[in-house]
Every structure is written in C-alpha cells, then in structure tokens.
C-alpha cells in the first residue's frame, strides 16, 4: 500500500529496510573522515552516531522507507555553454521532495493510524545511499552513486524513518562488473579506486562546497562544469536506461538552456536571480558562480 502510494506521488521506486545500526558503513565513514576526503565539509564530522543509527534520529523507529525521484531532463544545455549539473536545472529538489514525503507520511497516518516519523532529504545526518541499497533500490557503484539496472542513477534519494514495523526488502547484487568507465572519465581523478571517491577532489565539491579560492593545480581540469559535475553518471552504461522525468517543477528556466558561454561570462545578479529563482544553484550564490566561471574562462 505504501509503495503504491509512493508511485502515485511520482516517486520512481520505494524500498523498505529495518531501522538499525549500519554496521558495515561505520568503519567506512570513519576512514573517509580520517583521510580528510570530505575536505572543508566539516558538517560531515558532526553527528557520527546519528549518521549510522536511525533510532537516534527518530525515537522508537522501526523502518526506513527509501524513495527515489527521477530528475533526468528531456532537454539539455546548448553545446557551447558552461555546464550545470542536471539535478539543478529546475526547482530545488529539497522543497519538491519534502512536500511529497510529507504527503506520504500523512497517507500512512490516515490509513494506518498513530505513526511517528520524519522526512529526510539529504539535509540531515542520514546515509541516504546506504539505506537505499539496503532496501534493494540499487547497488552502490564504483563512482559511489546508487545505480539501478532499470533506471540508471539520475535520481534523488530520500527517506521516511517511521516507528512502524513493515516487511523489509533485500539488497540487490552489484552489476558494475569489470567496467571502469566512471574511473577512466573522471576529470580530476576523484575516484581514487573502485567504490571510493575522494570528495575533496570532486568537481562538485570545488564548484559548490568550497568557499575559498579554487586551487590553481585544478586549472583546466573542470571540463567546463561551473556548478556540480555529471561526468561519472554520463559515462555509466546503466544510464542508457534513464528516461525523462515528469515533474514540471524540475523543468529548467528557458534561459538556462539557451545561454552560451558568452552569456554566462556576462551574467548579472538580476539574471542570476531570475534564472535560478528557486534552484539549488542559489547555494553557491552569485559570487560563487562567477568565481567558477572566471576560473573556467582563464583556461
């Protein structure tokens, strides 16, 4: 019943796992932080216990309901443009998904009764991909993204953590095989070995998270990405199966698709506000985006 409702709310798929301590993830997360692969993203050091144990986030929680929402666009930016990650084309996904999750929680409460739960969209200490993999929605690929045989990887991952006993799904097997497309294609060699990404070397990290000057040694390595990066997804063979989303809120502002490099280089704060009115790109602010464009321009 919950899965059918998730589908009707527009989610791509829904899987359910038992809310318990993520034993396998604990040493992995510890190692990641110890090696400083999170760079300046200091928030990742906070709430270590909560990241691994959903019962510390939602008291008495029994189940993690994981959901995927497609964002693969029908149309792409023009060829002679600086690039924006496809997930940021339309309205900021946090708002879009949060509303759908609240609707799903409301439905569960109406149908089942007194159910306590919380909605999470990557803004809290929850290991989204680990939960999605645990509930059979895909496997974690060599580029550390969640991959699905049916739909590739151009989707958002979110969850409801609830104090309700449900039937649990089982993980699927890994289907990366001997493929190394993502590792070979990464412009900054951020995928340091299969299944391990050094976040502090990723173009998305530099163009979104890093607030300081961009490091000179990265000159010429950004492959013309000014916000985020999709290279490891674009080359993944499983993304042959990506189909355009049908969420009107994810449709881009028309100007976004038509802007050339020259337009981006001359962007004003007014245009920035108009094109990215409700977009996740606002996170980098006008100053951050122009910093990134200047860095690319000097190549």
Automatic annotation (TrEMBL):
Pathway: tRNA modification; tRNA-queuosine biosynthesis. The keyword Cytoplasm applies. The keyword Cell division does not apply. Its EC number is 1.17.99.6. [4Fe-4S] cluster 1 binds at residues 176, 179, 182, 236. One of its GO terms (molecular function) is metal ion binding. Belongs to the QueG family. Catalyzes the conversion of epoxyqueuosine (oQ) to queuosine (Q), which is a hypermodified base found in the wobble positions of tRNA(Asp), tRNA(Asn), tRNA(His) and tRNA(Tyr). This is Epoxyqueuosine reductase. It comes from Salinimicrobium catena. The gene is queG.
